[in-house]
Amino acid sequence: MGIDIRTIISDNVAKRCDGCGEIIEGTPWRVNLLDIVAPEAAVSWAERSAINPGPFQFHGDPDHVRRWMAAKGYLFCRKGEIREIMRPILIPGSEDAPDASRYGLCDGVHRDDHEFVPA
User: Fold this and answer.
1) What is the pLDDT of residues 32-55, one digit of tens each?
2) What are the phi and psi torsion angles at 91 (to 5°)?
3) Of the candidates 82, 100, 79, 81, which has an alpha carbon nearest to the alpha carbon of residue 90?
4) Any idea where the domains of the chain sit in the sequence?
5) Cα–Cα distance between 38 and 47 in angstroms, integer?
6) What is the rounded distance in angstroms from the CA atom of residue 37 to the CA atom of residue 89?
7) Whose CA is closest to 118, among 108, 101, 103?
8) Which residues, 6+ apart, have CB-to-CB distance to 110 below 8 Å?
9) How far apart are CA 115 and CA 23, in angstroms?
10) For the whole model, what pTM was predicted?
11) Are 33 and 105 in contact (CB under 8 A)?
């Protein structure tokens, strides 16, 4: 009949980098955060989990992931690298401000102590 029916289109711009907010061409780099503690039951809908596990998607440059980490207030373990799965480590607050705890993200590959720095 000569009618062209296109079923696959590429005008979807939903794939945006969580670091810079720009459109990601091709396959995004995804980062997932492991659960802090594996719960025995899922978190209730009325509650909020301690940390959003993702996945988060970025451009292939690790600087985009670091920008996202800095915006969220996460620290980065300089002994690790940016990988697909990152482990959140709770860093307790000081004696003066015990509620000021933060999270550091590490790939968990090294076996010695973490060295957290601002992302």
Assistant:
1) 998 765 566 666 777 766 677 889
2) -110, 110
3) 100
4) 29-37+50-118
5) 16
6) 10
7) 103
8) 77, 79, 80
9) 33
10) 0.74
11) yes
